[in-house]
Amino acid sequence: MSLTLICIPLPGTHSLQYFAVATSEGTEVPEYVAVNMVDDVQYSYYDSTMKTPILLFDWLNKTGGREFWARRTRYILYGHDAIKWSLRNTVQHFNHTGVHSYQDMGGCELHDDGTRRAYSAHAYDGKDFISLDVETMTWTAAMPQAVFYKHKREADTAFQQTDVGFYQKECFQSLKWYIQYGMETLLRKVRPEVMLIQRKARKSAGTDIICHVTGFYPREVEVNWVRDGEHLQEEGVWSGEVLPNGDRTYQLRKILTVSPEEQKKHSYSCQVDHASLDEKMDVKWIPEAGMNMRFVVGGVLAALVLIAVIIGVLIWKKRASGTKRHDYTPAQSEYFRGVLII
After folding, report:
1. pLDDT tens sequence across 137-173
2. Can you list the positions of beta strands (E) in the chain?
3. Are 43 and 165 in a shared domain?
4. How many domains does the chain have?
5. Domain-embedded: residue 6
6. Are residues 278 and 141 in the same domain?
7. pTM score > 0.70 for this model?
8. Which residue windows are transmembrane per the record (predicted)?
9. What are the counts of helices (DSSP H) followed by strands (DSSP E) for the chain?
10. Which residues contact 342 (CB under 8 A, 6 or more apart)?
């Protein structure tokens, strides 16, 4: 039985990601944990105490989905074997004892302009170790001590063939399939809600104006501070990252600091552009409302409480290993900032 993928429009960027961590024996946590996500939404979970991964999306159980899920399960279990191999070889190479961790993260992205990207990177004890160039299928060591691993992986033709199959074909087929069958969820459009909050600036006599945009989907959003009808440059504007809420929507904050003199001379508004809007949303700041003013557009205040539970695997907080080691120097990169948090 073969699976047929129907070509559908892909507004914005869609991604398939996996995060996995293996730890040495002797801890109370599972020695292997893997989380798979589509568009920042977790769709499966697996750890070494389980026989098979857990599927979290009901729509993956539709006709045809069972066969496809069986194929994905094989890749998830393969990842378990691969990362244990990586941890074992790395610990032996460094002649380390005690508890150590090995992380693996990767995936693929599809853009509405037809471009695509796949990536893979590894870390040892929370520090960048090695990454895979998917285009050339060659490994790049992040430190001299990781060159041995590069040689081992490139010399293992079975590993290389599996990696080629996943990153150059299977990952993108999987992502298209998820979008096709999860269209109602993944291709939906949810209007943003906007709150303006003002507070006294911490480092000046001015005022911080917080434009908090939340509850929107898809992820892509444009938020700008406007002064007298013209977009402000980023100078004087602090921009946060787009973060996931706990309900499969997103949030973003932009903070503008204005001096007392500027408040008297100019008018300010927060402008939001999103795929769910027929036209840009423009929310004007009214300083006369007082320092505790709240301005809500698109929903009730209670719906705008900041979501405390952010998907842990997307925010890699820096955690050094318990014992400092001096036999290799950590590399600086954006791939890994610490141990995978589930």
Report:
1. 899 999 999 999 999 989 988 888 888 889 999 899 8
2. 13-23, 32-38, 41-47, 54-55, 101-111, 116-124, 127-133, 138-141, 193-200, 207-216, 221-227, 230-231, 237-239, 243-244, 250-258, 268-274, 281-284, 294-297
3. yes
4. 2
5. no
6. no
7. no
8. 295-316
9. 6, 18
10. 33, 35, 312, 313
